[in-house]
Amino acid sequence: MKAHTLSILVENKAGVLSRVAGLFSRRGFNIESLAVGVCEEPNMSRITVVAYGDDAQIEQVKKQLNKLIDIVKVSDITYRDHVDRELALIKVGAETGATRAEIMQIASIFRAKIIDVGTRTVVLEVTGDSEKIDALEKLLPQYGIKELVRTGKIAILRGSKTVKSQKPE
Amino acid sequence: MKTGAKILIESLAKEGVDIIFGYPGGSVLPIYDELYDSSIRHILMRHEQAAVHAADGYARASGRVGVCLATSGPGACNLVTGIATAYMDSVPVVAITGQVPTSMLGNDAFQESDITGITLPVTKHNYLVKHAGELAGVVREAFFIAKTGRNGPVLIDIPKDVNTDLIADPAPAPETVSLRGYQPTYRGHTRQIERAIDLLMKAERPIIYAGGGVIASGASGELVELAERLMLPVTATLMGLGCIPCNHPLNLGMLGMHGTEYANYAVTECDLLLAIGVRFDDRVTGKIETFAPHAKVVHIDVDPAEIGKNKPVDVPIVGDAKAVLADMLARIRKRDGPSQWLHKIDVWKENHPLRYREGDGLHPQYVIQQLSDLLNGEGVIVSEVGQNQMWAAQYYCFRHPRQWISSGGLGTMGYGFPAAIGAHFARPGEQVFDIAGDGSIQMNIQELGTVAHYTIPVRIAILNNMYLGMVRQWQELFYDRRYSYTELPAVDFVKIANAYGVEGMRVDSRDEVRPALQAAIDAEGPFVLDFRIEREENVFPMVPAGAAINEMIGGHQQ
Ligand SMILES: Cc1ncc(C[n+]2csc(CCOP(=O)(O)OP(=O)(O)O)c2C)c(N)n1
User: Which among A85, B271, B403, B523 would be 20 to 30 A from A105, CA to CA?
Assistant: First the structure.
């Protein structure tokens, strides 16, 4: 079992997300993370899914996804050269000036930004791969993590390669 | 100016639809109003489940798309079992449902149900149409999707206001459909085809394992030609029966849980398995690790997701069975068969024929054999689910594809009778029999109303054992004869038939079988035969669930 990253190009049609998500749950896969957004093609969206499975299981999910009419392209980029990022917003307790200073120091090491300062809390914004965000998360509980919001992973191939639709013949 | 409903009906006519099986209700009133003076015929069923099964039976018997229509909410929900049945067996059905007006969507309005959500996992695709202007395009696409690639059901949900809206200049549907996310592969990869031929030529113990995909793609001719050229024995799945005539010397009949012993032995010993339009279902393979354990596997299927799903494949060929087989034939010349192998199979056939213990009682197998004999293996044979289905599959001698119609993947009791109604409209001149059990027939028995109403000459042969027979058989064999809730009290099916205005006859003894069948065959209208069979007759041979397919019980040795 290994985390696989699938990049999925879909038509922007009503219900397409539930078709994709439903297929995963129906076939017994937990979606580890999911990110959806518009992309370079008009009327299309790109979905990045991270799911656990062995290669054969993921291959089957890929084939099943490909059968959905509104899905134009599915690519398992796990073993391909790619970069990926996640974004997290973390609200931590900062009651005193001293803790605030400590938090700001940690933030700067992680190139995280302080995007809100309240009387008793600060909000950190951090982007990076999962490991980096996990590492930052581990340092903060001593101050009290009040709330944590993490996006799903998004990923893109390195170099000139792309995950694109094949043109109909 | 045209209403959405008018555009819908015109679009259906353009797709060549001449019959719709349906049931009306509030949200589809505009569609019914259009049907009132349309050239498309509508058959009023007595339950929406029957409407979708009839559309499915029509599709299987004809190879064309079957169409059904239901109202929103309860009507749409009643379609679900039938849509799932068509989905599992890859049958091209277009189901049209009414929906509450767009302004009320999501409000829990009267008779609202999220039918596109509900049917997501059991349709090939579905649509919720929001504007009348989209209807023509959606209908064109729905038919295209239903009947291309791996066939399957498509649902079109239409809110009431979309049906009543007036459109000034409705855009015609595009002539051809082009969908970026849907481009089925029809021609097999040349290199893989050559590899497959290479393996076939080298094989010493080859066998063809053929399924519903052969029937769906109309590849039976090519299949038989290939089998004859290379002298390959052929075994078929429940869905593939009829792909080769039953009396063909290379035919081994059905394989799997209730397959013939010789088919299962041959698959177990083969060194090359040519799998065509099949999906290695557990009812076929038994314990998958011991299925064709010595074989190289060549798998031809139009659905890439089926290849390698359950069993590793040596040569995958994605493509339409007919196109791929034609490409293979173009490269193959006739040769002498693997005579030792064929001889071995002949000995198995000789020593382990399909058989049942014949006594004084009325045996269901005998009923099927007599029917097969009287109809000379012609006609359309539809079945319910359970023992009746297996006896029909084992003992009817099918000659052609699309002659055998049965719910394989889902195993839906209540499928047969309404599917037989659909089959009749697909092939009006032919004898259509529904082989039923007394349990299954009661799941859609209300359709006696339909066959009486339209004088539809469907014949129902109920193999009445006063049990949910197949379940009772499992209880007998695996639950120490504890017949928990499987006994059914006697029902007088002749009286029920008569009450609907349908002829019927009860049959208690062997001597009465042929005359009774003949009476049904000769009847002008529908006919019900109530065969009071041996109550505890079993379907044999049988592979217990999870066993290897050569470990059969109730076979010849026992
Ligand atoms: C809708 C549905 N419910 C339950 C089952 C489970 N089941 C499979 S066979 C069977 C018994 C069928 O009995 P009957 O129609 O009398 O046929 P027989 O086996 O006696 O020929 C049952 C209950 C099913 N296949 N379909």
Answer: A85
Q: For A92-103, how does the pLDDT look when each residue is reduced to its tens digit (9 = 90+)?
A: 999 999 999 999
Q: Are B188 and B300 in contact (CB under 8 A)?
A: yes
Q: Residue A15, Cβ neighbours under 10 Å: how many?
A: 16
> Do both A63 and A92 map to the same domain?
no
Last residue within a domain, chosen from A61, A80, A99:
A80
Element (H, E) at B440: helix B438-441
SS3 state of residue B306: helix
Same domain, A33 and A74: yes
Do A93 and A120 contact (CB within 8 A), yes or no?
yes
The reply to whether CATH 3.40.50.1220 applies to domain B190-351 is yes
Q: Does B125 contact chain A (CB < 8 Å)? A: yes
Active site annotation includes B540: no
Correct CATH for B2-167 of 3.40.190.10, 3.30.1330.10, 3.40.50.970, 3.40.50.300: 3.40.50.970
Confidence of residue A169 (pLDDT cuts 50, 70, 90): very low
* Chain A neighbors of B117, CB-CB under 8 A: 15, 18
CATH classification number, B364-532, choose in 3.30.470.30, 3.40.50.2300, 3.40.50.970, 1.10.10.10:
3.40.50.970
Using CB atoms, pick whichever of A14, A69, A166 lies closest to residue B128: A14
User: B186 and chain A: CB distance < 8 Å anywhere?
Assistant: no
**pLDDT by residue (tens digit) across B501-550?**
999 999 999 999 999 999 999 999 999 999 999 999 999 999 999 999 99
User: Does residue A88 fall inside a structural domain?
Assistant: yes
Does the beta carbon of B121 lie under 8 angstroms from any beta carbon of chain A? yes
Which are the contacts of A143, defined by CB distance < 8 A and separation ≥ 6? A92, A93, A94, A99, A102, A103
Q: Cβ of B181 and A63 within 8 Å?
A: no
Given ligand 1 and candidates B413, B435, B465, which is best to mutate, with the most ligand atoms within 8 Å of its CB?
Answer: B413
Rounded Cα distance, B390 and B433, in Å: 15
Question: Ligand 1 center to residue B389 CA distance, Å?
Answer: 10
Claim to verify: residue A116 and residue A138 sit in the same structural domain: yes
Q: Is B322 on the interface with A (CB under 8 A)?
A: no
> What is the ipTM metric for this complex?
0.91
Q: Which of B413, B470, B505, B552 is catalytic?
A: B470
Contact check, Cβ <8 Å, B305/A67: yes
* Number of cross-chain residue pairs from A and B with Cβ atoms under 8 Å apart: 48
The ligand 1 atom at the shortest distance from the C-alpha of residue B465 is 20
Query: B523: left (phi > 0), else alpha (psi -120 to 50), else beta?
Result: beta
CATH number at residue A57: 3.30.70.260
